[in-house]
# Entry
Amino acid sequence: MVRGLIPDPVARQPWQVIVPLTLLVTFGSTVLYSAGGGSLYPWALTHFLRFFVFLAMAIVISRVRQPTFKQLAYPLYGVVVVLLVLVEAIGGIAGGSQRWLNLGFMTLQPSELMKPLIVLVLARFYDDLPPSMTASWRALVPAAALLGVPAGLIIIQPDLGTALAVTFGAVVVVFLSGVPLWWFISAAVVGAVAAPLAFFTVLHDYQRQRVFVFLDPAKDPLGTGYHILQSTIAIGSGGLFGKGFGNGSQSHLDYLPEAHTDFVFATMAEEWGMLGGLFVIGTFAWIIHWGMRVARDAPDRFAQLLAAGMTFTIFFYVCINLMMVMGLAPVVGIPLPFMSHGGSSMMTNMICIGTIMAVENWTRQAPRALS
# Structure
């Protein structure tokens, strides 16, 4: 009865994920309002408005048919690789990194677009690959090249955090495609042997310092260990119920760095306590569960790989950021989805959400097997 009163275009939207996302973004805007000193500017209002702009974009993406996704995979990948090359040639430099292109009307970070695109292009690649070739070199070498080119361009910016996010999404798709497990075991062994050498020869000095600080943040509490120490102090001081809205001393007295971006969870935990943290983590768990359910129920190989890869891309963001602010991982500059202020992060994650919504639509429209 109620459904008949609601227009069909509204009723068929995936409210089971839109409602939790809206609650999470609203909570994030509340935290940003407090971090901004009780003001809607410069963070809270723009964060809230960006979400609805990108939600509209996600709904548009969700209406795109599967053949169109497949047709656009390689062309879009090529365009973003060209943009990454342009970043290296003429990109803007900020904070010692060269990651952005000034387009006049906006500043674009092409590496963010590569996170969902690497999932799309590898899902297309493995969907086209004959099952008989899954265990041959043809299943690995082209995929490694598709990953290696953008990952290499991102690393030299330098932006290790984004390169790791791109690599993680790609590895998930490769793993789920059914390639031999011993490939991953061999890669892990090679990685364990090469890691010490890469640590001293490939990483920049500031990246090595982040690892040392992670191992012993108290060694330099006013220097390289400052971020982690202040974050853990903020989270711990919140206790069970928090200090109360607007009463976070670590963020309001500017002890907590990047309180509105990378360390927004610490800002939230100080004021809302463990209960606020459980709400955030529980909401993310609901979203991840929805994404994996969509992947499980997807009608074909391409759709399954696409939905799972997009879901794990969001999971990577959440997992690394939460581990970072709690001192369980080195600081790598990865924001918390839907809560940290930042247009590029919101855009990337809403592209992932829109793509999963599209797969859900494909499943709904697929012919049902006769029972």
The radius of gyration is 21 Å.
